[in-house]
Specification:
Order of helices and strands: HHHHHHHHHH
Number of domains: 1
Shape: globular
Radius of gyration: 24 Å
Number of strands: 0
Largest sheet: none
Strand content: under 5%
Length: 315
């Protein structure tokens, strides 16, 4: 039986809430990434700047800024190593996230199956989380999910070249006409950004469904991507509406938690009141923590909703 979008979303939400430890794992992942990123900058970029004799608190005039830029350009090879380090760090982040996502997908799919096809019922019927089950899913599918991300986003990168190449060609042809080149550049940037957003939404739906399909079928990354694309293509309405509904809720929640920081930043607008900033610092921290926790729960809801679609499609 094919469920409606509302029933599918509710099923995913109940699954995500019943297995809330998965959202806690996602939250811990975000915190860990933040700590690693800050530590990496401190341990790599700051010593590099000190080695070059750059101290930002001494940079105040435009001439000093120009001198800093000149120093950086002269030693640009050092930043190739820094950029390589950042790339390696991002790959590690994606790899870790892949293992987290594989474990979550395994639990959500097993929980959806255990809950049965009935729409109504107690939420606890979805309660199936255990660390052993999550670890088993992560171990079995982490590497496959990693390749799901890599293959899908590699395809997306190639698709993004479709509008980018003609824009670059036009800019090259019009290089002798600065006004026309500027107009084409601005218009092309708008077109490219809109196209990139559309591609990002579609690829996000594709990868999410492919991960859910892997958890159902336990096949290879290529098989999961193929079945995920067929599913999205054959039923675009429910996949898109579910994704948009979750996106709207995510934006509303983000706006709510952003209001904490906006209120806390009120001191800056009334004269950089240090006392006010110190008093409201806990409010900023609470808002940031709640926002990250909410985002983790939204991510669980998104995957659990697509897991419901994947389980439903199986005979």
């Amino acid at each position: 039986m094919k469920r409606g979008v509302i029933d599918t979303l509710r099923r995913g939400a109940e699954n995500a809430i019943a297995n809330w430890p998965l959202a806690a794992i996602r939250f811990a992942e975000v915190v860990m990434f933040g700590i690693i990123a800050v530590a990496a900058v401190i341990l790599s970029l700051i010593p590099l700047l000190v080695h070059l004799g750059i101290v930002f608190r001494d940079v105040q005039s435009s001439e000093e800024v120009a001198a800093v830029i000149g120093t950086l350009l002269e030693r640009w090879t050092l930043f190739i190593w820094f950029g390589t380090g950042v790339l390696v760090m991002l790959i590690v982040f994606v790899l870790i996230h892949s293992y987290v996502e594989a474990g979550c997908a395994r639990v959500f799919v097993d929980a959806d199956r255990a809950a049965g096809p009935a729409v109504a019922g107690p939420r606890q019927r979805y309660r199936l989380f255990s660390m052993d089950r999550w670890l088993a899913g992560a171990k079995e599918g982490g590497w496959k999910v990693f390749w799901i991300y890599n293959l899908a986003w590699s395809v997306a990168a190639l698709i993004l070249l479709i509008p980018l190449i003609p824009i670059l060609v036009l800019l090259l042809v019009l290089r002798e006409n600065p006004a026309a080149a500027a107009g084409i550049g601005c218009l092309g940037l708008i077109v490219f950004l809109i196209f990139a957003v559309v591609v990002g939404i579609i690829v996000g739906m594709w990868t999410n469904r492919a991960i859910a399909d892997w958890a159902v079928q336990r096949g290879s990354a290529r098989q999961a991507l193929a079945s995920g694309w067929r599913a999205v293509k054959s039923d675009p309405g429910r996949h898109l509406l579910a994704a948009l509904a979750i996106f709207v809720v995510a934006m509303a929640g983000s706006s709510l938690f952003a209001s904490f920081s906006m209120f806390a930043a009120f001191g800056d607008s009334v004269g950089h009141n240090m006392t006010f900033n110190l008093v409201t610092m806990p409010l900023r921290m609470v808002g940031s923590i709640l926002s990250s926790a909410f985002s983790a729960l939204i991510g669980s809801w998104y995957l659990a909703t697509y897991a419901a679609l994947a389980v439903e499609s199986q005979p």
